[in-house]
Amino acid sequence: MTIKPLADKVVVKVEEAEQTTASGIVLSTSAQEKPAFATVVAVGPGGVVDGEKVEMTVKVGDKVVTSKYSGTEIKLDGEEYTIVSQSDILAIVE
Amino acid sequence: MTIKPLADKVVVKVEEAEQTTASGIVLSTSAQEKPAFATVVAVGPGGVVDGEKVEMTVKVGDKVVTSKYSGTEIKLDGEEYTIVSQSDILAIVE
Amino acid sequence: MTIKPLADKVVVKVEEAEQTTASGIVLSTSAQEKPAFATVVAVGPGGVVDGEKVEMTVKVGDKVVTSKYSGTEIKLDGEEYTIVSQSDILAIVE
Amino acid sequence: MTIKPLADKVVVKVEEAEQTTASGIVLSTSAQEKPAFATVVAVGPGGVVDGEKVEMTVKVGDKVVTSKYSGTEIKLDGEEYTIVSQSDILAIVE
Amino acid sequence: MTIKPLADKVVVKVEEAEQTTASGIVLSTSAQEKPAFATVVAVGPGGVVDGEKVEMTVKVGDKVVTSKYSGTEIKLDGEEYTIVSQSDILAIVE
Amino acid sequence: MTIKPLADKVVVKVEEAEQTTASGIVLSTSAQEKPAFATVVAVGPGGVVDGEKVEMTVKVGDKVVTSKYSGTEIKLDGEEYTIVSQSDILAIVE
Amino acid sequence: MTIKPLADKVVVKVEEAEQTTASGIVLSTSAQEKPAFATVVAVGPGGVVDGEKVEMTVKVGDKVVTSKYSGTEIKLDGEEYTIVSQSDILAIVE
Prior knowledge:
In chain A, a hairpin with a 2-residue loop joins strand 6 and strand 7. By secondary structure, chain A is an all-beta fold. The first copy, chain A, starts with a strand and ends with a strand. In chain A, the strands form 3 sheets. In chain A, strands 9-10-2-5-8-11 form a 6-stranded antiparallel beta sheet, with no helix packed on it. Chain A has a two-stranded antiparallel sheet with strand order 3-4. Helices cover 0% and strands 53% of the residues of chain A. Chain A has no helices and 11 strands. In chain A, 37% of the residues are buried. Chain A has a single domain, classed as 10 Kd Chaperonin, Protein Cpn10, Chain O (Roll), CATH 2.30.33. At the A-B interface, strand 1 and strand 9 of A face strand 4 and strand 11 of B. Strand 9 of chain D pairs antiparallel with strand 4 of chain E. Chains A, B, C, D, E, F, G: It holds the Pfam family Cpn10.
């Protein structure tokens, strides 16, 4: 499978609401809360978006927090993904 | 038939909600979900749109994911098409 | 009769919902659908609109698709016309 | 009486809904339709508006079509006028 | 009393709805109509507003027409004034 | 106590609705009217805000009129203050 | 734990509604008031945001006032944090 996001788009896979990371951190988002912990699975090339040059600063494999209400959900080969703009990614969790 | 989109417009044909691609991927969008898998059938020339130079990065035949709520549906010669701005195309699926 | 659109404005005549073009294409827009097939009857000079230089790319006689909800309807000499901005024209049909 | 519009403002006098022009055209706007046939009675000097240089292209005496919902109505010396921005004028009818 | 408007702000005193000017013009705004005839009582220094250079073109004593819904009403020393942006002033009446 | 507003923010203390200034002016804002007479208690450093250079023109001690609906109310050490952007300050009263 | 905010994002920990600072100031925000006293726990690198260069002026450990309705709440390792844009931080309290 290859999904290639355009421009400043990023494809992420939303994680289960509660999980323990390698470093032992418990990540949790209640089901009714919109912000999501997610893993980056594909990153667009960046470039000019709305007339502004966008450099991509996230990379595949990053654990990220995305903002509320953002993104378009798609289902590919039975798996659910969310496509967001990089500006909807608030932080990287390590 | 010739339909020539203007500026940054792209004409796409929305695919059936579930289908299997050449590489065996099952693509599905439930009927009540707005994002669409679509095939590009015509691409505008790009150029200056709202004062910003837009380069076209999709091409005829690309399988794409378009964003929610976007596009204008038209019927041409009995077939339904959707005209979207390129910025409403989130990703290419291969 | 002379109607001279200003700036990036274009005067179009909306076609009947269903018609057959010279090349035999059946064009149809259901009555309840807003996008319209229309014929360009007058084109503004372009120039600076909202601080951006606009070049006119449609010409009198073009068969066009206009976007939903756009335009101002006027009645001139018993005939109905619609005045739209060129950016509300999505594609040319030939 | 002197009314001097500022910047890109234009003072117009809305015409009766139906009238016949010198060239015999019947102009009509039904009472419930907002776009108006109007005659320009005063034109502002143009200049920088919202940071963009605006050149005035209409002149006193022009018969114009103004867009829906635009303008501020005033009463001067018993006569009703409407003050619009030039960008709310869609076309000149001759 | 000194009230010094900042930036592109202008302090005006709204006139009675109906009055006769020196040149005999009857000015009237019905009570339920929002646009107002007003007299300029103080003018800000202009300068950069929202990143755009604004030059003040009205002066103290000007009779002006202000746009609908604009301005902040204040009471100073028993008198009511309205503070508007210069761009809310549509025309000068002489 | 030190409160240091950032960027173009200004901390003001809203005055009682009616008071007499040194020069004998009675200032009043009815309780249900939103514009406020206030005294500036701290001024941000200015700088680039939304990509525009902002110079601070009010200073500590200025009596100002702020616009309707603006500002964030905070309580510090039992006293209530409002933090506004300088662009929400309409005029200085002396 | 490491949380790395992107661009102009700042991670803050909202303080209890009432507390006494080292210098003896009682800080309070009633439960129903949205503005928050918070402590900065992580600061993004700044850079170009929406085409504008943003310099970060807050630092880890700063006590800040954030604006109403802003921010995305997350829970990390059992603790609640809020991610805001730096422009949502109104002032630093010392």
